[in-house]
Design goal:
GO terms for molecular function: DNA-binding transcription factor activity; sequence-specific DNA binding. This protein is an alpha+beta fold and 290 residues long. It has ten helices and ten strands.
Length: 290
C-alpha cells in the first residue's frame, strides 16, 4: 500500500505542460467532494468494486478490477466501495497547460471507464512516481527532478490510451453498421421509456454491450452520455408538462418522469438556473403578457 501523497512542487512548475499533484495506491473508502478536486485525476482499480458518482450530472459508474477512469478538476463527485473485497485503487492527480488537451487527444476524456490492456505497467508507473516523490531527500526545487516526474507522467498517460482496433476496413464498416443499429435501438428505447425508472445497465444489456463500452460508443456518437441524453429528454418533457398545465404539482411532474422529487428539483435547477416552481411562475407570467 502506498498512502496518499501530495507532491511539493517548485514555484516555476507551472511552466511544465504536465506536473503531478498527488499520487497513491491504497484501499479506498467513502469520499465526498462537493467542490471536486483541484486537478485532473486518474484512477486504476486493482481489486474490489466501487461506485463513482458525478454530483453535477448524477451519473453513476461502477468501477471494477482492471479499469481506468479519468475525471476533470473542480467537479463535484463521490465514490465508495460496493464489494466485500477491499477496493484497492491507484490514483494520480496532475495539472499543467497541456493536461486537458492531452486527455482529450488520448480519448481519456469525456469520463468513461474502460479496461486498459497495460494495467500492470500503469500500476507500476504510479508506484514509481510515488517512490520518486517520497525518496529520503529529493531536491524538490531541482528542475531535472520535476522534468523526470513530468516525463514519467506523460509516459503513464500514453500507456493508458485505449487500444485501437487493427481490423480491416471491411470489418470496420461492418462494425460501424452494427454499432449504429445498436445505438439507434438504444435511443429508441430511451425515447419510449424515459418516463420510467430507466437504468443505463438495462439499456446496455438490451443492445448487447457492457455498460462501459455502451457509454463510450454513445458519447462518441451523440456527444453526451446516455444518462445525460435521458436527463435532457426528461427536462424537455417537464417544461412541456408545465406549459400544458400550470397547476400541475412538482411531485406529479417528477413522478411522470420516473424521477425522485428532490433529485428532479436539483437537476432542474442546475440545468435551468431556477427551481421548477419558479419556472412555472415565469411561464405563467409569460402567458399573461401575451
Amino acid at each position: 500500500m502506498l498512502p496518499f501523497s501530495l507532491i511539493e512542487l517548485p514555484r516555476d512548475s507551472g511552466t511544465l505542460p504536465l506536473s503531478p499533484y498527488s499520487v497513491g495506491r491504497h484501499i479506498q473508502f467513502h469520499h465526498v467532494r462537493p467542490a471536486g478536486f483541484p486537478v485532473y485525476q486518474i484512477f486504476l482499480i486493482r481489486t474490489g468494486t466501487g461506485l463513482f458518482r458525478d454530483l453535477e450530472s448524477g451519473t453513476e459508474i461502477i468501477l471494477e478490477p482492471g479499469m481506468a477512469f479519468a475525471f476533470p478538476p473542480d467537479r463535484g463527485h463521490e465514490y465508495y466501495p460496493t464489494s466485500h473485497e477491499p477496493w484497492h485503487v491507484g490514483f494520480i492527480g496532475f495539472q499543467g497547460s497541456q493536461a486537458h488537451g492531452l486527455l482529450e487527444a488520448l480519448e481519456l476524456l469525456p469520463s468513461v471507464p474502460y479496461r486498459t490492456d497495460r494495467f500492470e505497467q500503469c500500476w507500476e508507473e504510479i508506484g514509481q512516481i510515488w517512490h520518486t516523490v517520497n525518496s529520503p531527500a529529493p531536491n524538490r526545487q531541482d528542475e531535472m527532478w520535476m522534468q523526470e516526474l513530468s516525463i514519467t507522467l506523460y509516459r503513464l498517460l500514453l500507456m493508458l490510451r485505449p487500444a485501437k482496433s487493427s481490423e480491416g476496413s471491411g470489418n470496420r464498416l461492418a462494425f460501424e453498421s452494427v454499432r449504429n443499429e445498436a445505438l439507434t435501438t438504444a435511443v429508441g428505447l430511451i425515447n419510449e421509456h424515459y418516463t420510467e425508472p430507466l437504468l443505463i445497465s438495462n439499456l446496455a444489456a438490451a443492445v448487447g454491450y457492457s455498460v462501459q463500452h455502451f457509454q463510450r460508443l454513445f458519447v462518441q456518437e451523440y456527444g453526451v452520455t446516455p444518462h445525460k441524453y435521458l436527463q435532457n429528454l426528461r427536462l424537455e418533457r417537464a417544461l412541456q408538462l408545465m406549459t400544458e398545465d400550470m397547476e400541475i404539482p412538482v411531485q406529479d411532474i417528477a413522478l411522470q418522469l420516473g424521477m425522485e422529487t428532490n433529485y428532479f428539483i436539483r437537476v432542474f435547477r442546475k440545468n435551468y438556473g431556477c427551481t421548477p416552481g419558479v419556472m412555472k411562475i415565469r411561464l405563467l407570467q409569460g402567458e399573461q403578457m401575451k
